[in-house]
């Protein structure tokens, strides 16, 4: 079932919630094989492929660590780090090939790899991951997130004689691990050692550790940043997967050891789907231990001590832990979803996937009668909560970026159908203002990844106020889908391009379905609801017709390629279209663009209008049509260079276009669904502008796909 029932996530520690004004989106990939012979060359290829699958998250350097030696009984850890693209790291490995033993076969091996997004220190090999504890590489760590008390830990370790070579917050972790190992290594296992390290850390992190002192073992931990464990078993898939303990690893009569096992850690499911579809989502404060063909998941028992900002480090191991169960889930993602197929870029592929994505969003939720006519909307996972939402004081829509724009697009319809006040909140602003949320509020949190840090913090705040929390997310098993009381998965499929396209249209579709379900008990709005439902059913075919504008938008992009600015005017339902179109142009084409509410034109923006500045005016038929027509007339009276988006059978506005290329005719649907169609030509325009201007379409500079740290 696509609908989600929240299981109630634990709120993160205050230190993880207090990180401000930081953007980080690193990628972690780790691979461990047990009793599964792999050559060093094969292991390196797996690690590099895993990193390539995480490229879309954004990064500025990459690195990996593997074992090397003349034979498997005498190996040492080798670390390779390079700035720039993963291809640069591949070049470094090729240059070092003569010093490596690519044909050396390992029955058991642990390798870790990382793509870094700079937060502390500029992109440089010394700042890239994995970070090491010393010249002997006793402990190696890869890290996604930010350690907020790293300076206090660094100063403490420097007083103990440790030397630091990087500018990063991460380097304190392997050095602290080394210090604690030297202090009491005979008293604890690798997992317990890592837990002692975690007890000292404040902030958000996903971590993976390897050590020469614990050969064949990997330990990973999560707080705030996403991390998944993938499991691929040997030739007995019908039997139980692995030992569910890492204390001794002694098989019982009911739990036979597998012939071979492979384990993967990754920041995203896209990095492991080609290796295994059996994954386990780690939750905050989980520690995973891989050893000898088995795995165990443990929870740290929180210990609050004095002076944590400047720890003395003078203590014996005290962290207690209990093994916990985590459900193993099967990924529905297919390898084809993370490939470009016949398209040059992921963004273009995802724009053209929108008709099928919307069909998936509707599947099982729009009910038809025996004659094939649409009858009602049924949201299985929301049934128990619809009456509560109807009784709410208000509905609040909360998101960031494109998700926030999708909330703007659906706000008017939700107000109309529910007759409840609907307000909008930017997730990053909720805690800054300490928004007054109440127990009888229903708050809808919108996020493609389901891991957006600002939205998660707003969600935790809302839960603390007792509000009903609803999730609209794309990624199954994500933090928001687990933490909310109920919600909808938009089922858009994997979205790799940084610029969100199909997630935006599927988010709007999902919230339209939710509004229809909420108004099902209203007879006075029955005719309006039926019109909308008929329109929803035709959306995929209508969007396919809109995609036929591809070549026309390419021609328009050629006329705009040298421009420095672009303004977009929208009103009513299409104000969101103007905002989202402007966001797409600025984030991928790197062209200044601004979405403006047309009603505000005379309150400042009109001063910018002249014969050179290109203006996009969205004037399809809806309740704002006559007002938009008036806006166009006023702009043309000032010799404005207008690009018009109009309904396909509307010829009355042709005279206002500068030439034939400047008028875009789109298929017409129900007014509240028109933004789903109108955004398509603007998505295509932003794509073609980016290609023509020579920028990276799928990985715009300075941007990451999901912002998992504030």
How large is the count of helical segments? Answer: 19
What order do the strands of the largest sheet run in, or round the barrel if closed? Answer: 4-3-5-2-11-10-12-16
The 3D shape can be described as globular
| Average of the residue pLDDT scores | 85
- The count of strands amounts to 28
Helix/strand/pairing category:
alpha/beta
Oligomer: single chain
Largest sheet: 8 strands, antiparallel
Cα radius of gyration in angstroms:
27 Å
Share of residues in helices: 25-40%
Uncertain runs are: 1-24, 236-256, 304-316
Descriptive report:
A hairpin with a 2-residue loop joins strand 13 and strand 14. The protein is globular and about 80 Å long. 31% of the residues lie in helices and 24% in strands. The protein is built from 19 helices and 28 strands. The chain starts with a strand and ends in an 18-residue tail after the last helix. It is of the alpha/beta class. Helix 5 crosses helix 6, helix 10 packs antiparallel against helix 17 and helix 11 crosses helix 12. The longest helix is centred in the last third of the chain and has 21 residues. The strands form 5 sheets. The chain has an 8-stranded antiparallel β-sheet. Strands 6-7-8-9-13-14-15 form a 7-stranded antiparallel β-sheet.
